[in-house]
C-alpha cells in the first residue's frame, strides 16, 4: 500500500506518520474454497489437521463508511497521512473500524473484516457483515434454526405455513441478538416448532438487503416469466451468479432444507408450491414498487422459490 499523500495533487499540507503494518488486506477472490480432491489434499495428515477456519469461505465485503469526528491526532490507515481538521476529519467503517480520509475511502479495497465489537446484533444486520464477523459460511441463526427444525419438525403439519406465537418468536429474536450462538432453542425452551420456523422467517424478512438482493431481483423476475422450463433453469442459473457469495451460499442451504421438507409433504402438507407462497415475499422484494406492481410480482416470486426448491440439486 502506498504511503504517498493522496492529497498531493490538491495542495494539502501533509504530516506523514511512519507506515505501520495494515490489518486490512485486499482479498484476492470473492469466494475461496479449500480443495478437497486428491490434488488439494495429498495426505491424510493434511486433511486431519485442517482447522475449521480453513474450511470457511472468504467473502468479499465493502466497507460501511460514515463521516466521523476523531478525538486527538489521527492518521489515515490507507495513505498514512495526517487527518486534518477539528470535526469530520474523515470517515470510519461502522463494521470494522477502519479510519481513512474521505478521498481515500473511494479507493480502499473491498476487504472489510467486521469486528464483533461493532456488530451488536444478529437480526437486521447485513448478511455478509454477520458471516464475516463470526467467520462462518452462513448466518448462525439460519444454521441453528434449520438444524432444530429438521431434528423435530419435518413431519409437523403446516410447517412454515402456521405461525408461531408472535411474542415467543420475538423472544427468540432477542435471544439471538443477546446470546448469539449460545442461545438455546431446543424443545426444552420452545416446545412449539412453529416458533422456530417463525424466527427463521423473521430473520429473512428483517435483512436490510434481502437474501435475493435488490440488484438481482429484476433478473429473477425475468427468469420466472420464461415459459420454457429448460430455458427458465438456464436463466435462473445466470441470475444466481449475481448474488453475493454469502447470499448465494445461504440460499443454497435454505433451498436444500426446503427440498427435504417436501420429502415429508404427505405428513406436513407442504409442497414446493406451498413453500414458494410462504417464502417468495420473504426472500425477495423490490424497493419503490407501486402496490399494483408489487401485487403482480407475488406470483413470480412464488414461482422463483418453487423452481429453486424443485431443482435445487441442479441449480446450486
What's a concise summary of this model?
The chain is mostly helical and 316 residues long. The protein is built from twelve helices and three strands, in the order αβββααααααααααα.
What does this structure look like?
One of its GO terms (biological process) is signal transduction. The protein is mainly alpha-helical. The protein has 2 domains: 118 residues, Wheat Germ Agglutinin (Isolectin 2), domain 1, CATH 3.30.60; 196 residues, Orthogonal Bundle (Phosphatidylinositol 3-kinase, Chain A). It is 42% helix and 3% strand. It is built from 12 helices and 3 strands, in the order αβββααααααααααα. The chain has a 3-stranded antiparallel sheet, with no helix packed on it. The radius of gyration is 23 Å and the shape is globular.
Q: Give me the strand/helix succession.
A: HEEEHHHHHHHHHHH
Poorly predicted ranges (pLDDT <50, ≥5 residues)? Answer: 1-56
CATH superfamily of the largest domain: Rho GTPase activation protein
In the CATH hierarchy, the architecture of the largest domain is: Orthogonal Bundle
How many separate helices? Answer: 12
- The side-by-side strand order for the widest beta sheet comes to 1-2-3
Number-wise, the strands total 3
Determine Rg (CA atoms, Å): 23 Å
Strand proportion: under 5%
Could you tell me the mean pLDDT? 82
Largest sheet: 3 strands, antiparallel
The rough form would be described as: globular
Counted up, domains total 2
- CATH-defined fold name of the largest domain: Phosphatidylinositol 3-kinase, Chain A
Find the structural class using helix and strand composition: mainly alpha
InterPro entries: C1-like_sf, DAG/PE-bd, PKC_DAG/PE, Rho-type_GAP, Rho_GTPase_activation_prot, RhoGAP_chimaerin, RhoGAP_dom
Domain Rho-GAP: 125-316
GO molecular function: GTPase activator activity; zinc ion binding
Pfam families: C1_1, RhoGAP
